[in-house]
Amino acid sequence: MPPMLLPAKHKHNYTATIRVVVEDQLGAATIVNVQFKVRMMLK
Question: Which domain of life does the UniProt lineage start with (predicted)?
Fold first, then answer.
């Protein structure tokens, strides 16, 4: 649901949820990147 359709009181929750999702994505990408580098070093 687009943020503009949400009541004002839910706006912060919506933003916080997006932030958590984005941070999860970045965290997962970082873990994969580290694992890849470690694998390359072990070869």
Answer: Eukaryota
